[in-house]
Amino acid sequence: MTYPAIQNATFIPFVTPVQSIWLNGVNSLVNGFVPLEQSSTQQIYAQNGAKINRMNDRLFVGDATVYDGVYPTASPDWLSQLQANTFGVNSGSVPFAQFASLTNTSVSAGSGVTAGAQTKYFTATGAAAIGVQAFGYANNENGFAADCWGYYGEAHRLQTTDGNAYGIEIAVTNETGVPIFQTPYAGPVGLCTGIQIDSGNGFGVAQEPGLCAASSAMTIVQNTTDNSAPFLKGIIFSANSIQYNSGIAEAISFPEGYSLQWYGPGGGQTSSLLCTGTTQTNATQLDFQEGYLTILQQQNARPIASFAVTNNATNYLFFAGAVTGSPPVIAAGGNDTNINLYLEPKGTGVVQFGTYTAGSLSVTGYITIADSAGNTRRLLVG
Questions:
Q1: Which residue positions in the chain have pLDDT lower than 70?
Q2: 286 to 227, 259, 278: CA distances (angstroms)
Q3: Burial class of residue 104 (count of CB atoms within 10 Å of its CB; 0-12, 13-18, 19+)
Q4: pLDDT at 86 (0 to 100)
Q5: Helix (H) or strand (E) holding 198
Q6: How far is CA 266 from the centre of its chain?
Q7: What pLDDT score was predicted for residue 116?
Q8: CA 219, chain centre distance (Å)
Q9: Burial class (CB in 10 A: 0-12, 13-18, 19+), 332
Q10: According to DSSP H, which parts of the chain are helical?
């Protein structure tokens, strides 16, 4: 039997060719393959004329068609072969997929699946275009603690000569020429955000009430039994990845009361960094400058205190609090056995201390001190 050539069509293979099959009202069969080719209606709902094609069983595309649909397979596809020794199942992920698309081209680039969505033809404000949707529900009704993932992706770097491997890359571009400034308290219309992580935001039901707190927005895990594959860095901001404003680029923003909290091995809270200020007038800034650690007033960027670096220093200041009835301590510490505590006024300034009381006393002794030149002096005491 001779069949006419069909150009630019996608075909669904049948293991056993049949005489004919109805597809969208058209009786078509070409060499045991059903051609899928139809014009677009620009509609999404059937009542508006959209053409809906339904397949109840599984669909394999490209090199995924090598898999024969039998578990376990005798002729695994290339992805299942790569996953056989590392994935948590016997023959990879394809045997459990309703839809599998694997590349089989020799060109310089290829994607298993490409999806795109645009808002160009929307006729209502608030509508959304989503390129890819993936949902996972942990809803086992038989008492089994089965995990679920809304999205799961892997990238493997197999050879030292291979290029970069990215588990996921999310790129966003703002082509309007108008950047929208965002704070931890505001998300105005027009934001262009690389990634947003929501807790309790049901699809189509934003800010759904009555839910529960999620454990964390992001968790970084080393996922081997021998701890052989840790991340070398937790988070990296590449140079020039954040826009500078007067020489400062704001890499992370927090609202008032948010802290950086550390924990001990047993899970107990240890040290933390915390800001409870609410205005710029009284705000402070910790500035690690070249050769200095400076505490600044945020309002005018003027120093409150500055600590200088001394190369190869071994002596230092020691600060300690005290219990009720005892004074706090500012002391000299370091390697030397005897260390002076050097207080140096600027210019003709002098050291101020104590409260003056008029009167005369008999000298009963002295306290040894040193002047700014290091000369030993005695301070008389009555």
A1: 1-37, 72-75, 85-91, 106-108, 202-207
A2: 35, 15, 17
A3: middle
A4: 55
A5: none
A6: 25
A7: 94
A8: 9
A9: middle
A10: 78-83
Give the contacts of 317 (CB within 8 A, at least 6 positions apart): 330, 331, 332, 333
Identity at 178, one-letter amino acid code: V
Q: State the Cα–Cα distance between residues 240 and 216, nearest whole angstrom.
A: 28
pLDDT digits (tens, 9 = 90+) for 146-199: 999 999 888 888 899 999 999 999 999 999 999 998 888 877 888 999 998 888
From residue 376, give the alpha-carbon distance in Å to each of 367, 371, 373, 382. Answer: 10, 7, 9, 20
Tokens of residue 358, six digits: 């008029």
Q: Tokens 């060109």 — which residue?
A: 107
CA distance 371 to 102: 81
* Residue that the structure tokens 């006419």 belong to: 4
Give the residue carrying structure tokens 């892997």. Answer: 154
- What distance in Å separates the CA atoms of residue 131 and residue 170, rounded to the nearest whole number? 12
Alpha-carbon distance of 192 to 196, in angstroms, equals 10
Euclidean distance between CA atoms 263 and 8, whole angstroms: 60
The residue type found at 56 is N
Question: CA gyration radius for the chain?
Answer: 35
Residue 315 has, within 13 A of its CA and on its CB side, a CA count of 9
Q: Helix (H, G, I), strand (E, B), or coil: what is residue 240? A: coil
For position 34, what pLDDT does the model report? Answer: 54
